[in-house]
Write a structure and sequence with these properties.
- Two copies of one chain form a homodimer.
- Chain A has 18 helices and eleven strands.
- With 397 residues, chain A is α/β, with parallel strands linked by helices.
- In chain A, strand 7, helix 13 and strand 8 form a beta-alpha-beta unit.
- The termini of chain A are far apart.
- At the A-B interface, helix 9, helix 14 and strand 9 of A face helix 9, helix 14 and strand 9 of B.
Chain lengths: 397, 397
């Protein structure tokens, strides 16, 4: 089965760095195959892979038998879903397609990232059976797990006001260590990526098509720069064209990856509201930048404030407040209970000495000092002669 | 005591239309006297009047004895408060001052409105002991009890954007029957009043000083026009100069009178936030108009969205939604349970026939038809060949 799909294991070595043969190679090829067979967000594929593993799921997908075991795929309903899904997948199971995807990835210097990899963003696992089975990355995959990450998205047909605000927010946040996640589109997305690159900050662009395809074409240079200095990521394999569906599916990854999502400008029916909806569904903090009520390009943001319970954000400090909670417990294994305890011990109103904080938090003085240093770099705390405090919301400029 | 304060009962006839002598005259004079003696929001005066009635309260206030009865004024703490309050009130108990206030009111064609009067706005009674003991009104006092009423306030140093939005909202709302309540100030207040007058709508200006004093001076013509076509209202008597304190105290009346308060533009520390705070404290719906985050004059509005849980409003329809609840049960006796039942029977999603609405509401068909006519005028409902529905939130223009 595997051999029918991919004949060139050497290409896999280039893309994944794995030795030919062995379980890892089989899993890699199976997941690469799944990214070719299934559209993004195919929850039947997700459930199947979850239940059986990618290799066995692939065998089942391209076979004809109904699985005998496994609660997730055992019911009559699941059997019908599987039968329908097979009808979707089969037409794509053409010999050479997976090999082509791998060859294109090799040529574009793209990597295949799988769940379990060090740089797999476990944040996207919150999507459940809709999570991607693999991600294709050009650039630095480590950015996918660096924290904090903030999604800054918005209208393609942005105004000068919107692009200005997007650039201010993204520049400030990137300069202080946040990874700016967006969709590589014209308008707000482009302004956010550019501002991050402009301060030599980190930025990740999720594309709706393959990472080897520059879309939109007018962003060819920007996307190349993101591949060189940040990361271009996509769920469909190299060579895939972007489609309406893939844009919508891509939006869920942006929302899932961000510790918070901020919509800077959006029309009443903007695609950015789709990203915002995913963020809200995933329980990610959602911010919206207000604008003139006379501007149609801010109508979607005002709608988010009214209907989606979005937080009104007007400055990078207010964006940082959004993710304050979620970054205290990042999901990439760097969870630090000491940090949570120290944050609990800090006040925004009264400044406290290191000794006082050590007492309140029950941490050693040295530990408090080193954590305060980190929190200071993140601008979560500041210090003067009276002591340390959590930085409160500043007045908008 | 009364005679020491007011010698000219004929003036009272001109101001109140009461016959000289009798309980009403005594109460009127006592309350006029209280408006001279006590600053707005003097809760000791309010509690005393509440407990003893205005006449006896005045006797006590200007005497030296400690009241023997009355839980509200009997405790040691209350006795101390009374002693301090007497020290505030005595310097103002000058012979002739109340007469002067009445004479000025007569000359300015101002009326004295008391609790219990038909046009007393019971909405301000929500202020408890801080409610005004009387109000001085130039113009049509009936506007104080007409519904719905919406407070539209904001920055004196408004931008063209803010004045434009204030005028759009106030004009739309006044044209459909809402009373526009504001503070007569430059900027947003003035734009709101002018727009209401421009559509021959109703508007009420609360002044911090006496209603015979045009403040600000540059609004002399506007305030005169409001007195002629709407209502100028103040708590301090004629001849009183506006002070910082009186501006703040005046703000609570604007918030109390409005079924909803909308802040159109406000700086980070704008006085409009004070009005908004009163509205929130009183449980009145609070709306804020967003603006560019780059505009310092919108920073207060964004603060209201973030910190006061204000609703983001971008159109007059969204302002109407704010007071939807409170106007369904107005406090001036015009409460109509049939209207509430019909509104319950209407849907925003599906259109319903008159027969269906009659069945759902349990109202007679004729009654349903006449109420639908009224609701149609208020733009609460609309109709097409499929039937009637509640108008949903439209897209912002």
């Amino acid at each position: 089965m595997m051999d029918r799909l991919v004949a060139d294991r050497d290409t896999l070595v280039a893309v994944r760095g794995v030795r030919p043969g062995g379980d890892d190679a089989a899993e890699s090829i199976a997941r690469a195959a799944w990214s070719v067979l299934a559209e993004p967000g195919d929850t039947v594929a997700g459930a199947l892979i979850e239940a059986l593993g990618a290799v066995e799921a692939l065998t089942l997908a391209l076979g004809t038998s109904v699985p005998r075991t496994g609660a997730a795929v055992g019911s009559e309903l699941a059997a019908r879903a599987l039968s329908e899904a097979r009808a979707r997948w089969r037409p794509r199971a053409r010999p050479g397609d997976v090999r082509d995807a791998l060859c294109r990835a090799r040529d574009a210097d793209a990597r295949l990232i799988l769940p379990g990899d060090e740089c797999w963003p476990t944040a996207v696992d919150d999507l459940g059976p809709g999570r991607p089975s693999a991600l294709w990355v050009r650039g630095d995959p480590e950015l996918l797990v660096r924290t904090p990450r903030v999604a800054i998205v918005g209208a393609r047909a942005a105004t000068g006001y919107g692009e200005h605000v997007a650039a201010e927010l993204a520049g400030d946040l990137a300069a202080t260590g946040a990874v700016i996640v967006s969709g590589g589109a014209y308008g707000i997305d482009g302004a956010a990526h550019r501002a991050a690159l402009g301060v030599e900050g980190a930025t990740v662009a999720f594309l709706a098509g393959g990472v080897d395809r520059a879309y939109p074409a007018g962003h060819q240079r920007l996307l190349q720069r993101i591949a060189d200095e940040g990361a271009l990521v996509s769920e469909p394999p190299c060579g895939t064209a972007p489609t309406k569906w893939r844009f919508l599916a891509r939006n869920r990854l942006i929302a899932a990856l961000g510790h918070a999502t901020v919509v800077v400008e959006a029309g009443w029916r903007s695609g950015s509201l789709n990203t915002a909806g995913h963020a809200a569904t995933l329980g990610r903090p959602l911010g919206a930048v207000p604008g003139p009520v006379t501007s149609a390009t801010s109508a979607g943001c005002h709608r988010l404030l009214r209907e989606y319970d979005a937080q009104c954000v007007t400055s990078s400090a207010e964006v940082r407040e959004l993710w304050g909670q979620s970054v205290a417990a990042p999901e990439d294994g760097a969870h630090d209970p000491d940090r949570v305890r120290l944050l609990d011990a800090l006040s925004t109103r009264s400044r406290r000495t290191v000794d006082d904080l050590a007492r309140r938090s029950g941490l050693a003085t040295d530990r408090v000092l080193s954590l305060l240093g980190l929190l200071g770099l993140e601008q979560v705390v500041d210090v003067d002669e009276a002591g340390w405090r959590r930085v409160p919301t500043p007045a908008p400029r």
